[in-house]
Amino acid sequence: MSWPWIVLLVLAAVVVIGAEWSRVGRVIGSEGRRQRERKRRKASFRVIRTEEEEFAESVQRDLAELPTIEEKDRRS
């Protein structure tokens, strides 16, 4: 392989890295580290359910189980 081909190969690699730098920077850089730390912290969170939420869900379940009148039955 002659030296012009090696130079072209290196230039092509530089162009690809330059074009993808924003994506690579997010994964490798400080922003990526911040996002990984945030994911780690969020993984330890747990949802605390309140009585109001449980009540609202039970009301929704009860309403979903009620019989309904179909449109064709309403006309008769």
> SSE order in H/E notation?
HHHHH
Apparent shape? elongated
Oligomer: single chain
Average residue-wise pLDDT: 85
- Give the helix proportion (percent range): over 70%
Structural class: mainly alpha
Tell me the major beta sheet: none
Strand content range: under 5%
Q: From the alpha-carbon coordinates, what is the Rg to the nearest angstrom?
A: 30 Å
Low-confidence residue ranges = none
Write a brief structural summary.
By secondary structure, the chain is mostly helical. 78% of the residues lie in helices and 0% in strands. The protein has helices at 3-19, 21-28, 30-43, 51-65, 71-75.
Tell me what the structure shows:
The protein is mainly alpha-helical. 78% of the residues lie in helices and 0% in strands. It contains 5 helices and no strands. It has helices at residues 3-19, 21-28, 30-43, 51-65, 71-75. α2 (21-28) packs across α3. The model has no long low-confidence stretch (mean pLDDT 85).
